[in-house]
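[step 3/7] fold_predict: job queued, chain A
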Amino acid sequence: MNSKTDIDKIPLNTYKNRLVSLILMIVGIGLLLISVVASINFGAADLSYRDVYNALFHFDEDNPAHTIIRQLRFPRAVAAICVGAALAVSGAIMQGMTRNPLASPSIMGVTAGSSFLIAIALVVIPGVTYLGLMMFSFVGAGLGAALVFGITSFSRGGITPVKLALAGSAITSLLSSLSTAVGIKFNISKDISYWFAGGVSSVQPQHVLFTLPFILAGLLLALALSRSISILSLGEEVAKGLGQNTGIVKLMGTIVVLLLTGAAVSIAGMIGFIGLVIPHITRFLVGNDYRLIIPCSAILGGVLLIVADIVGRMVNAPFETPVGAITAIIGVPFFLYLARKEGRGL
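[step 4/7] structure written:
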């Protein structure tokens, strides 16, 4: 029972699931386009929708409004979509590989590890380039995940969802505290505060150009792995019985998570709970087939973050509320609900 035909006979989705996913993607793309226009139009400078259209399609470098749109607001909107998609897909893959409903980059120590290594990079290599920070972010993401899984694997009774969440919370607190200590000791608190707050307000066009290839590569790899993640989500024994090399799938899935999360943190800092909430919502709507979950999660993650960024600008205008605080308002109650639901696994 190891042929492609045998695997394809498993009823991972139905016609209804595929129809819902198609509608979801069409509506989601429409919401993305509307949100991009709204994000570009909304801000301290008073701009019209005509300014937005002309700046995007008839750019005049002597027009200050066009410069604001091209250099500040459009890169910010694109970054929000990319980061939201990256974090949502990372969470979906983590949940599928580990069969852990509490798994997400922010809860499993991945984003905290990235921020910690960024703080170290700012101390060890003054004047480090943005590409260098991104490399440190990738390594830090791996460090955070390794610490969480390493600690949990030695616990009595093995790995359970709640144990992973508890270990992830502990490691996240530890690495965040160490980052703060490093910032105070070496007087770089202002430099690292951006990554702690989480947001896309300071994104520049070059940041998007650096990170976009990594995020696109991660998303394409995630789509390529989606069928294998679907089988793995049924259980490791089932996957092995179907002839799947689970070790290779887990390795590639981990690489995708580190690639997406590392790139996301390097551009937007620690933004939590998107990778937890969006995969659950998507799975509820389209079923358990990751060939549907991954693209839908990417779209919904982008919508959530760009809308959260707009809300963050409206809550306390003209000041901005960090987008990480907006996503936490949604994510914390959801996390508590899931933790209570999975508490029997302790």
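[step 5/7] annotate
The domain at 4-345 is CATH 1.10.3470.10 (ABC transporter involved in vitamin B12 uptake, BtuC).
Residues 43 and 313 are 7 Å apart (CA to CA).
exit 0
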